[in-house]
Design goal:
3 helices; 3-stranded antiparallel β-sheet; 16% strand; 7 strands; 148 residues; alpha+beta; 20% helix; single chain
Length: 148
């Protein structure tokens, strides 16, 4: 297994954890995955796998697996079909090595500040207590102080 896939899965689980904790949901990390103590916000999974080769029994007892439950199988290795789950979509982790910023583009990355109107507009649907945090920074690319 490519170690970058492990890092991507962990990073995604950490984002899910941050969002769920901001909504007051208790969560758990262990070597198998990340698990939410109750149903998660819309579009967020109830569990994220952090290693290959898990069985349904490793996941389902730790979450609310009633109808509406979703599990992000980070490595496409868990068979949940016998438990009433169906495949929603297939995806792959992708990676691009970082490259230096192009010279002369005039565009610069900067951390958005909570006072910026563009930041407030973007954050309307996220819980305010998520931001700002040490773990999360929202970046904007812009030119001459304007977000592009």
């Amino acid at each position: 297994m490519d170690p970058r896939a492990d890092l991507a899965a962990r990073n995604n689980a950490e984002w899910c954890d941050l969002v769920c904790r901001a909504h007051g949901i208790e969560t758990l990390f262990d070597e198998d995955g990340w698990f939410a103590g109750r149903r998660t916000p819309r579009f967020y999974p109830d569990a994220v796998t952090l290693r290959e080769g898990l069985a349904a029994g490793d996941l389902l007892p730790r979450i609310d697996s009633s109808p509406g439950c979703s599990i992000k199988d980070s490595f496409a290795s868990v068979d949940l079909s016998g438990d009433g789950f169906g495949l929603l979509f297939e995806a792959e982790w992708i990676h691009r090595e970082p490259t230096p910023q192009r010279i002369g583009s005039g565009l610069r990355w900067a951390a958005m500040q909570t006072a910026d109107a563009s930041f407030r507009e973007m954050m309307k649907d996220l819980k305010a207590k998520m931001l700002p945090t040490r773990e999360v920074k929202f970046l904007a690319m812009g030119r001459s102080g304007r977000v592009e």
